[in-house]
Amino acid sequence: MNREPVVITGLGIISALGPDLQAFTAGLRSGRTGIRRMTLFDASDCRSELAGECAEPTFARSLALPSRTSRPDRFGLRAALDAVADAGLADAGLADAGLIFGTGTGGAPDTEDYLRQLLAGVLGAPGQLISHQPSAVTDLVARVLGLRGPRSTVMTACSSSALAISQARDLIQLGRAPIMLAGGAEGLCRLTSAGFGALRATSPELCRPFDVDRKGLNLGEGAAVLVLESESHARRRGARIHARLLGSGLTCDAHHMTAPHPEGEGALRAMRLALHDAGLGPEALGYINAHGTGTPHNDAAESTAVSRLLGERRRAVPMSSIKSMVGHTLGAAGAIEAVASIVALTHGFLPPTVNLQTPDPAFDLDFIPGAAREQRVDVVLSSSFAFGGNNAALVFGRA
After folding, report:
1. Alpha-carbon separation of residue 126 from 111, 129, 189 (angstroms)
2. What is the pLDDT of residues 123-180, one digit of tens each?
């Protein structure tokens, strides 16, 4: 494999903090939460009605969307269009580009609407189910942008889009594509709201990652897309480089269907592998963008893993969870949090863990409670840990 550095030249995002990268950055810096009572559907019979809901994306009138697109499809397309524009790429430069998307439930919101009609005695048009397949967002983005390189869809629950970014880097270094778009898209739906509620994983209050009184997560939705290139390709076309993707680590706990390993074994191995891949030690880290769901078991396992990773430096490396601001976006979380990690590198501040009132004394880590911290760092670790013990860690460096 060619070990030429891979860089990030484009970013696109839509989240509960706003419709674009500018709003997302401003929201992180101000410590504003986008989590509120859901309006998309009635969740009064669920454990929590709170979620990080996004505004419907808008598109130019000249862009003819297919007649059937799901909400997460549109999120993904909006983020991809913005990422390509941010990278300064025209259609001609995308012909051989590839695409990997991560998702959790695909077009489930449309499938749920179809099922409700069916139960009410109304047989809907079969076309309503076109967006059901998880690859619908990947296919839509590839078709609209004319991407003819490698194309794939990843579903490993909450680590899906982090894996997508890792795999995109591999394909560039293997020489399979000069440019890769990678990211994730997710839409709120009844399946996840009821399902996570049944697991008692959602919180009826605003989520408080790493708080001694944390009660669970708030779901979220949105999309994020990164444009990746080899550094030489980016330099040849005079692209602006946001950051470098220095390393990635992928592991599986092989422990339980939903619960993480209590000692964070798989999470620790993923972080160590990512640093090893980057040719760095834990002492190089300036900030960790945590998975930080706000659930008792996940926060405990992740904090244990980070403490073991950092050792005596565990208080010297700040760590925060932006899920307190955008919600847990499941299949899109890894990509959204990768963008937050790059924002930290490029804008010189560390996002806070909002709503955190009383840090759990069992953890003994710096969680950046309440407000963003003005601090320049050179290396950031972003972690994504999923059901089934599917773990991913990405290491980003300053351009």
Report:
1. 10, 6, 20
2. 888 777 778 888 999 999 999 999 999 999 999 999 999 999 999 999 999 999 999 9
Q: What whole-number distance in Å separates Cα of residue 185 and Cα of residue 134?
A: 10
Amino acid 115: pLDDT: 86
Closest of 319, 322, 375 to residue 347, by C-alpha: 375
Confirm whether 158 is a catalytic residue.
yes
Reduced DSSP (H G I as helix, E B as strand, rest coil) percent helix, strand, coil of the chain, to 5:
35, 20, 40
Cα 126 to Cα 111: distance, rounded to the nearest angstrom: 10
Q: What is the DSSP letter of 96?
A: T
pLDDT given at position 326: 98
Nearest to 313 by CA among 293, 285, 291, 339: 285
Catalytic residue among 233, 242, 261, 291: 291
Angle CA 200–187–136, to nearest 5: 130
Backbone conformation region of residue 336, classed left if phi is above 0, alpha if psi is from -120 to 50, else beta: alpha
> Mapping DSSP to helix (H, G, I), strand (E, B) and coil, where does residue 335 land?
helix
46 is catalytic: no
pLDDT at 88 over 80: yes
Query: How do 219-220 and 243-252 pair as beta strands?
Result: unpaired
Closest CA to 321 of 242, 398, 375, 382: 382
Pull the structure tokens for residue 239: 């692209």
Residue among 46, 158, 189, 207 flagged as catalytic: 158
> Side chain identity at 135, as an amino acid letter?
S
Per residue in 309-354, pLDDT (tens digit) is 999 999 999 999 999 999 999 999 999 999 999 999 999 999 999 9
Mean pLDDT confidence for 225-237: 97
* Residues 197/107/135/384 CA torsion (nearest 10 deg): -30
Q: Is 233 a catalytic residue?
A: no
Q: Say if strands 373-374 and 349-350 run parallel, antiparallel, or are unpaired.
A: antiparallel
Catalytic residue among 233, 242, 261, 328: 328
Residue type (1 letter), 349: F
Please state whether 88 falls in left (phi above 0), alpha (psi between -120 and 50) or beta: left
Identify the CA nearest to 70 among candidates 80, 56, 51. 56
Q: Where are the alpha helices (DSSP H) in the chain?
A: 21-30, 71-86, 108-119, 136-145, 160-173, 190-198, 231-236, 265-278, 296-310, 323-326, 333-347
